[in-house]
Specification:
- With 242 residues, the chain is of the alpha/beta class.
- The chain has 9 helices and 10 strands.
- The chain has a 6-stranded mixed β-sheet, sandwiched between helices. A 4-stranded antiparallel β-sheet has the order 2-1-4-5, covered by helices on one side.
- A hairpin with a 2-residue loop joins β9 and β10.
- α3 runs parallel beside α5, α4 packs across α5 and α6 packs parallel to α7.
- The longest helix has 15 residues.
- The radius of gyration is 18 Å and the shape is globular.
- It starts with a strand and ends with a helix.
- It binds adenosine-5'-triphosphate.
- The site of adenosine-5'-triphosphate has 10 residues, from α1.
Length: 242
Amino acid sequence: MSLTALLVDGLTVRFGSFRAIDDLSLAIDYGEVRAVIGPNGAGKTTLLDVISGITRPKQGRVLFDGAHDITRWSESAIARAGLRRKFQKPSVFEGLTVRQHIAIGADVGFRSRLDAPALEDRISEVLETVGLTEQGERLAGELGHGHKQWLEIGMVLASDPRVLMLDEPVAGLTDEETERTARLVRALVRPDRAIVVVEHDMDFVERIADRVTVLHEGRTLFEGSMDKVRADKAVVEVYLGR
Ligand SMILES: Nc1ncnc2c1ncn2[C@@H]1O[C@H](COP(=O)(O)OP(=O)(O)OP(=O)(O)O)[C@@H](O)[C@H]1O
């Protein structure tokens, strides 16, 4: 296993003549939580779209696990390899229970197929981790927004991801739910997993991120700890000071 989970190398994504990602290079290691922040339109979602196979770059590579350029892989091949994403808007199956959702996540994603008892154990373990044990038999449609977010994190987690991408996981959550999500994200850290979080809530980012990459106009404006990010003049000018 490489120490680097994702190596983004000279990546450019164009929409017509506009460069949403502009010759971007960055490395994300196993064992870390990396926050990707920056103003609207900086290219954060586009970066996640490339890593998850939704958008094809014009130039550059994304090496997964030090060896595989995933920019030509299909979305499903990328997901099967263990790169999994929770999208910004919760989209649960209203008529299925919480347990059924986690089962789908485990069944679709788990790289070594589980037998029935192992699957039940896995579901219970995931429910415990995301704090939804008591809601296991409830229909997803009855859950509040926070619980839906944790359910979706649970679905992704059930697949035992190597790279876990979370797109604005605390948008629309209360302060208490945000705090609980921060604790959850930190509990998902493992030496063989990289967690990439796109988020606008800077207090949340400070709580979870080992390192922060600030994007601006498709390039890295700054990279470092949140303390250093907050102190950087250029970052304050284009983003934090607004
Ligand atoms: N399919 C597309 N066609 C044309 N332009 C696009 C497309 N997708 C994204 N863009 C443009 O690329 C730029 C980067 O968008 P992106 O969604 O990656 O930004 P972001 O940093 O995620 O912003 P936000 O914080 O608002 O989510 C924006 O100017 C956006 O309008």
